[in-house]
Amino acid sequence: MAIVVGSALGDGFLQKTGSRNARLRLEHGVKQKEYLLWKGRQLPRYFQGTPAYLERVHPKNGAKYSYVRWQSNASPELGKWREYFYAKGKKIIPEDIAIFLSPLALAIWYMDDGYFSQDKASFLYLGKVSCIEAETVRCAIENNFGITPKVYDKQTKGFVLYFPVIETRKLHELIKDFIHPSMRYKLGESQPL
Q1: Is the pTM for the entire model greater than 0.85?
Q2: Are residues 53 and 118 in the same domain?
Q3: Same domain, 114 and 66
Q4: Quick one: which of 47, 123, 134, 149 could link to 40 by a disulfide (CB 3.0–4.6 Å)?
């Protein structure tokens, strides 16, 4: 459940596949292939087969991007998560997200959409959510874990949670045991060779 929640908050997409079913689509850059495989393997009931390698051309700059996509089997359980995260067809941060926000879910979300800066602060990109949704998840993190991020409006990029240095230390301490080895650079550690 935590991996589904973290993925839905992050880069995952719960795609409707009928009136009650949905599937989870995971997409990551080729450099994050090991992380994608790890995520899918944690959910063997849903993910079978192998991921597909795809290329996309950026519509504005024409650059070519390679990425890996792995889609789960459709199920009514994932359909319920789809209803939860895509009320009225648009991705949201639900009002009661604190109930489902565990350290593992936060770790998955951070691996998907987090960033560790040179000044030793961390960011967690929320995308095109409302200010109320951003504040909801900020409060959930504070209440659940005693970590106090700030909400910044990045205008065209949407809202982001900013974790100052002291809060970053708390965040990294909370999630470090769940971070995949290929993603440890998001904790400021060097990547394995």
Answers
A1: yes
A2: no
A3: no
A4: 47
